[in-house]
Design brief:
The complex is a heterodimer of chains A (309) and B (254). Chain A is 37% helix and 28% strand. Chain A has 309 residues and is α/β, with parallel strands linked by helices. In chain A, 42% of the residues are buried. Chain B is mainly alpha-helical and 254 residues long. Chain B is 80% helix and 0% strand. Chain B is built from twelve helices and no strands. Classes of the chains: A alpha/beta (309), B mainly alpha (254). At the A-B interface, helix 2 and helix 3 of A face helix 1 and helix 5 of B.
């Protein structure tokens, strides 16, 4: 659905992105990760036909963004960093306006706007002025605007910025629900968001792609299986010994009623075995969590050249 | 629905969902009414004096009222038009809503034309409301229709020229104050450009004179409809809209 090859964009002497190559299949959700200034927004702006690349090609829904920008724009819904809303319009008027701009036929405008507002939870504020809404609601209006013409491809630039925790979960669920029917590229620097929504990630740093793969494969590849924390009802050395006995466990430290377990990533997925071992040893497990944020570790290693050394 | 019209209609409406449009039209009509009233007052006083001392027919309605009426309209437009046009692109850039237009299947030409026409619609609405004056004149007296028709045509062309300059100025910046000041300066320049023609040589003087917004208006105000004047205004408008188009295209490349 999206084909990017050798994409480069330079702003004067400064190169924002360099030789990007990636593709996204139909119905996939892909997380676009990178530190600030890595070129995420630039890439997204090129994909949406907002601006042309310096060299290289990008194809969206079968159309080249440079040669056929109008067709591309018809098939793409874009939520920029700042929601592109008109403060003096009501939510409904604005969504209908966005629908018309995106070639939704007059007969279907009302229905399309209604559906988009329903999906993003805006129905009860449809008559209010956007200028009077909170940031979270404006963000939703931006999302509704991107969805309203039912585009094949959705490009979302940090879609959950400014939302409260409940809304963040709602929007993530919404985005997950869009998979299959729509192809989604979503940029973010909130790592749990990627873990929650995107099966596949592209990590970009300094304008280059430093990694792209499925999340689980990346974790395995970069040896970042992380650590486990097991909280038990009452401390028992039997449980600690049992866990230590599992193949792939490097080290177990116990402190109070918690066990900290270091895993060897090369051993693959051994977390279920660790849990079984602990249970078999009679430990009453209260909490079992991966404390080493695997993605964070990979992210920092890949995007920060200092950390590699 | 045509994209140009979608943009025009939204922008036109947005003038009236905020106080701007009302303030704008009220200021225009209020000041014009004030000017019209005192113009009429002096006109009747003058004509009374002419009759009293048997000095002949006096000044006609066309020369004494209609011409000053349109002249005043033009001066008022010159002052307030930059405030109407400054928002067009500058505001959209400032609050990033321009990204909706730039990523929607809309061409730059449709954007520029849409914005231009939305301001022209406000102008047309303003002028429509001034029809009150010729109607009053027609009831009270017997004005020559030529200068009225010509006056309206000239005024709308002149106003649209101001708007075209304003569209360009709004496209070059995201600061509305800069946009307004710039269009104010440019309009004034093309208003007064004929001043230089008197001291320039015959060829240059002629060119400068022909570039003036005012000198092409004079025929209209006499009720003379000359196609060359209309062509001047239309190409003037086209020129500035073309520049605005170029500027917006370059906005994508930056």
């Amino acid at each position: 659905m999206i084909e990017v090859s050798h994409l480069t964009k330079a702003y004067g002497p400064r190169t924002a992105i360099q030789d990007l190559n990636f593709s996204v299949q139909e119905g996939e959700i892909v997380g676009f990760l990178g530190p600030n200034g890595a070129g995420k927004t630039t890439t997204m702006k090129i994909l949406t036909g907002f601006m042309p690349a310096s060299s290289g090609t990008a194809k969206v829904a079968g159309y080249d963004v440079f040669e056929n920008p109008i067709e591309v724009k018809r098939n793409v819904g874009y939520l920029p960093e700042t929601p592109p809303v008109h403060m003096e319009m009501t939510v409904r008027d604005f969504i209908e306006y966005a629908a018309r701009l995106h070639d939704v036929t007059s007969a279907e405008v009302r229905k399309a706007a209604g559906t988009a507002m329903e999906k993003t939870g805006l129905t009860h504020v449809s008559g209010r002025l956007i200028g009077n809404l909170s940031k979270g609601y404006r963000q939703r209006v931006g999302l509704a605007q991107a969805l309203v013409h039912n585009p094949k491809v959705l490009v979302l630039d940090e879609p959950t910025v400014g939302l409260d925790p409940a809304q963040i979960i709602e929007i993530r669920e919404l985005i997950k629900g869009l998979a299959g029917e729509h192809t989604v590229i979503l940029s973010t620097h909130i790592l749990p968001e990627v873990q929650a929504t995107c099966p596949r990630v592209i990590i970009i740093s300094g304008g280059r792609i430093v990694a792209q793969d499925e999340l689980s494969k990346l974790t395995a590849k970069y040896n970042a299986a992380g650590n486990l924390t097991i909280q038990v009802q009452s401390a028992s050395s039997a449980a600690a010994d049992a866990v230590k006995g599992v193949k792939g466990v490097q080290k177990v430290t116990s402190s109070g009623n918690r066990l900290y377990v270091d895993l060897d990533a090369a051993a693959g997925e051994i977390r279920p075995k660790v849990l079984q071992a602990a249970l078999k040893a009679g430990a009453e497990v209260l909490e079992f969590s991966s404390s080493g944020a695997k993605l964070e570790e990979i992210f920092i290693r890949l995007t920060n050249p200092e950390a590699v050394k | 629905m045509n994209k140009t019209w979608i943009i025009t209609w939204r922008d036109f409406k947005s003038n009236f969902t905020s106080p701007i449009g009302y303030i704008f039209i009220t200021a225009f009509l209020g000041l014009l009414g004030y000017m019209f009233f005192f113009n009429l007052y002096h006109f009747s006083l003058q004509n009374l004096q002419y009759q009293q001392y048997n000095m002949g027919k006096g000044v006609s309605i066309s020369d004494g009222i209609v011409k000053p009426l349109f002249g005043n309209m033009n001066v008022l437009m010159f002052i307030i038009m930059p405030f109407l046009t400054m928002r067009l692109f500058a505001e959209e850039k400032k609050n990033h809503s321009i990204e909706l237009l730039l990523t929607a299947p809309v061409t730059t030409t449709q954007m520029v034309l849409g914005k231009f026409l939305s301001a022209v619609m406000v102008l047309a609405l303003m002028l429509l409301l001034t029809l009150f004056y010729p109607i009053v004149l027609a009831i009270a007296g017997n004005p020559d229709p030529g200068p009225i028709v010509g006056g309206y045509m000239g005024t709308i062309l002149m106003g649209a020229s101001f708007i075209a300059i304003g569209v360009f100025c709004s496209a070059v910046t995201e600061n509305q104050i800069v946009a307004a000041s710039l269009s104010f300066g440019l309009i004034l320049f093309f208003w007064l450009i004929s001043w230089a023609s008197q001291s320039a040589g015959p060829v240059v003087g002629d060119i400068l004179n022909n570039l003036s917004l005012i000198s092409h208006y004079n025929n209209f105000s006499r009720g003379l409809l000359d196609s060359s004047d209309a062509v001047f205004y239309l190409s003037f408008i086209g020129f500035w809209l073309f520049l605005a188009h170029r500027v917006l295209e370059s906005y994508r490349w930056r």
